[in-house]
TrEMBL record, chains A, B:
<feature type="binding site">
    <location>
        <position position="191"/>
    </location>
    <ligand>
        <name>L-homoserine</name>
    </ligand>
</feature>
<dbReference type="InterPro" id="IPR016204">
    <property type="entry name" value="HDH"/>
</dbReference>
<dbReference type="Pfam" id="PF00742">
    <property type="entry name" value="Homoserine_dh"/>
</dbReference>
<dbReference type="InterPro" id="IPR036291">
    <property type="entry name" value="NAD(P)-bd_dom_sf"/>
</dbReference>
<keyword id="KW-0520">NAD</keyword>
<feature type="binding site">
    <location>
        <position position="106"/>
    </location>
    <ligand>
        <name>NADPH</name>
    </ligand>
</feature>
<dbReference type="InterPro" id="IPR045865">
    <property type="entry name" value="ACT-like_dom_sf"/>
</dbReference>
<dbReference type="Pfam" id="PF03447">
    <property type="entry name" value="NAD_binding_3"/>
</dbReference>
<keyword id="KW-0028">Amino-acid biosynthesis</keyword>
<dbReference type="InterPro" id="IPR002912">
    <property type="entry name" value="ACT_dom"/>
</dbReference>
<dbReference type="GO" id="GO:0050661">
    <property type="term" value="F:NADP binding"/>
</dbReference>
<feature type="domain" description="ACT">
    <location>
        <begin position="351"/>
        <end position="426"/>
    </location>
</feature>
<dbReference type="GO" id="GO:0009088">
    <property type="term" value="P:threonine biosynthetic process"/>
</dbReference>
<comment type="pathway">
    <text>Amino-acid biosynthesis; L-methionine biosynthesis via de novo pathway; L-homoserine from L-aspartate: step 3/3.</text>
</comment>
<keyword id="KW-0479">Metal-binding</keyword>
<keyword id="KW-0486">Methionine biosynthesis</keyword>
<comment type="pathway">
    <text>Amino-acid biosynthesis; L-threonine biosynthesis; L-threonine from L-aspartate: step 3/5.</text>
</comment>
Length: 430, 430
């Protein structure tokens, strides 16, 4: 067997530069861990003349992907360019040439993971993608290896740093969404075009990957209920706090009675729950297993070096497997039948806030409406609303079916005494 | 290759019963994960007639270890009997007969891990021991696989559930140590003879294992500074809370300038630090790596099923390796030179409380003493003491060398104005 492992790196942005830096700074560790020297042979970039943060010999850069994919000397492809195409085509081409792959590409793995993993297995290659979910937190390995003997029943995650930064900042400062988003953009925690983060799609990709691995089913992104944070008001955050909750963009994947639901939505989390104190750009994933009970994994969700740590640790696993000649042989494809819950099987507690006419009997009318729809109430607060002879009603329900809640909300909207339904969030207790 | 993997189980106590239960309840999962049926063939017990919590055919029980160790049909030994001997002898004998081993035995791995792993490697066998540290938290795999590309610089752990239960209960109720210990014993959270837990030894074993894996050195138990919780007073817990700290029995392993210190001691942890809110019998391990930054792993530290989950997940790894014929080939033995810090290289903040004569100039004398010993103070509180014309002085220092602190303490003890030094704890900030 060779003495050196040659890597082809696709992409030299933030994560790619981190990978270069770790591989060059940690040569001793990598050699001791694998018994082989790991060497970055060629790097695909868009512009070979661009000034780079990391020192790289110019002859290692190329704009031509074929030079890397088709090079028989290259053993492993590390894909950190992001996006679906051409990343997907490069990866499939590399696998067909028996090159192992490490990728940080969550969009690609969420949308085309099943196909990529199947082709990897056919070619006896590894495809590892730890860095695609929650940057430096080794959550995929926990699901595939550490809990391999257990039955996972729930995965709850704060898996998007941008939205967690915005929501925890709003909670701390009392500033509103727009102002906080702009500050996050200035600080580089939110992108100029923040849609994929704030609308919940980034988190949905990650929850789709996590639930596929945790529940052994092939989840599709379209099966994730997604709601972003752009409508979250500072009023709701502060009302939530008074009631003992923190607002989080929470990914939830639940298995009850062999049926699954997966969602990403702004959620009020009881402040004694371990997830409630995860602030700023940190991520955390809370897992419940039948045997293990409650566990939580906390760490940096993004950033060049944390994400690159996951990439290079995957690379170490690939190289160890290469030495033993066992690449692509430990993969467990989804083997369970996927049964999704219907809305009448999805149960949650809810927080609701509405503005109503301040007249006798309205509260009774509202509570009756909930009772009629099989929803019982845990807390009811009525308080004066700041304008126009109206009152504000805040409700926290007991566990209720989503279908019942939706009927109640639709009925309320039609009622003359109801001026507006301001907000509706699921509630998670500790 | 065979269709079935035969297990010999040594011990059928709490964890052993959990292993039997998971293997029998999760046959489908185990088969899907490994492609093989996993079957417990024989179980070593002390008394074959004892009534058991789990249903087991009596002919599978034996009091004779040789029947298991020497049985050529048995592929894997699962050791959950605990203690050093005869567990060690059984494991070594099994390895020499090319049987793979999964163990939950922290004492054994902390004291004789190096020898056992060396013999395992000679015989191309796996020895996995995830369950030996922090029950259901997959922390060993995180250190060996997930952070394999990083350089770990700090490991802080709440790794003993009994002491964490006692300290968090004291903090919540204001009851004293003795009363809380007795309650914990009644509830089964502390043993009748709680020495190994409350004196910090159980945690020291675990920190020795964690620092061996994290720093790639062969740590000895005797190199861990250990102090238990039996002297922790409710006064200090409450004073700490007022200053914004929670008292925890904290395992600390730190690498600075290639030099190591490992300790287990009651420590005041800033209440915004993620470890401060780990309460009750839960465990958590906080890890800092040069590249990954801060991460934390939280979960149940003990209990039949959580611990058994780790055991059976290790078993899955063994079986996957057996299928591929690669047992015992991924182990990375400690490869770094071990250099331990001397006391003048160990830096920490400290909390001190002492009772002094209530007379003019005493505070000045004390603060001068610290200054003379290169210790600067962050906070100084003087308050009346409840008896005998004395005052209580509470100090929080800036980072100071342990050697300087010890000289200061020794000098203080000799001073006429000092009635007693009530307490001295390291302080960890967020």
């Amino acid at each position: 067997m060779q003495k050196e492992i040659r890597i082809g790196l696709l992409g030299l942005g933030t994560v790619g530069s981190g990978v270069v830096r770790i591989i060059s700074n940690h040569q001793e560790e990598l050699y001791k861990q694998t018994g082989l020297h790991i060497h970055i042979d060629k790097i695909l970039v868009r512009d070979t003349n661009k000034k780079r943060e990391v020192p790289i010999a110019p002859d290692r850069l190329t704009v031509n992907a074929e030079e890397i994919i088709e090079d028989p000397e290259i053993d492993v492809i590390v894909e950190v360019m992001g996006g679906i195409e051409p990343a997907k085509q490069y990866i499939l081409e590399a696998l067909k040439r028996k090159k192992n792959v490490v990728t940080a590409n969550k969009d690609l793995m969420a949308l085309h993971g099943a196909e990529i993993l199947r082709i990897a297995q056919q070619n006896r290659c590894d495809v590892f993608y730890e860095a695609s979910v929650a940057g430096g937190i080794p959550i995929l390995r926990a699901l595939t290896d550490s809990f391999s003997s257990d039955r996972i029943t729930k995965i709850m995650g704060i898996v998007n740093g941008t939205t967690n930064y915005i929501l925890s900042k709003m909670s701390q400062t009392g500033a509103d969404y727009q102002e906080t988003l702009e500050e996050a953009q200035k600080l580089g925690y939110a992108e100029a075009n923040p849609g994929s983060d704030v609308e919940g799609w980034d988190a949905a990709y990650k929850m789709s990957i996590l639930s596929t691995l945790g529940f052994h089913v092939a989840m599709n992104l379209s099966e994730v209920d997604v709601k972003g944070i752009s409508d979250v008001s500072i009023e709701d955050i502060e009302l939530g706090k008074k009631l003992g909750y923190e607002m989080k963009l929470l990914g939830l994947a639940k298995l009850d009675d062999q049926k699954i639901e997966v969602s990403v939505q702004p959620t009020l989390v009881r402040n004694t729950h371990p997830l409630a104190s995860v602030n700023g750009v940190y991520n955390a994933i809370y897992i419940e297993g039948e045997a293990v009970g409650e566990t939580m994994f906390y760490g940096p969700g993004a950033g060049a070096l944390p994400t690159a740590t996951s990439v290079v640790s995957d690379l170490v696993s690939v190289v160890r497997n290469m030495k033993l000649g066992v690449n692509g042989q430990k993969m467990v494809a989804p083997y369970k039948e996927k049964r999704l819950k219907t809305d009448d099987e999805k149960y949650a507690k809810y927080f609701l806030r509405m503005v109503v006419a301040d007249q006798r009997g309205v509260l009774a009318q509202m509570t009756q409406l909930f009772a009629n729809n099989h929803i019982s109430l845990e807390q009811v607060i009525q308080q004066p609303y700041n304008s126009g002879n109206r009152a504000e009603i805040i409700l926290v329900t007991h566990e209720a079916a989503k279908s019942d809640l939706e009927i109640a909300l639709a009925t309320m909207k039609e009622m003359d005494v109801v001026s507006s339904i301001e907000s509706c969030y699921p509630v998670v207790e500790a």
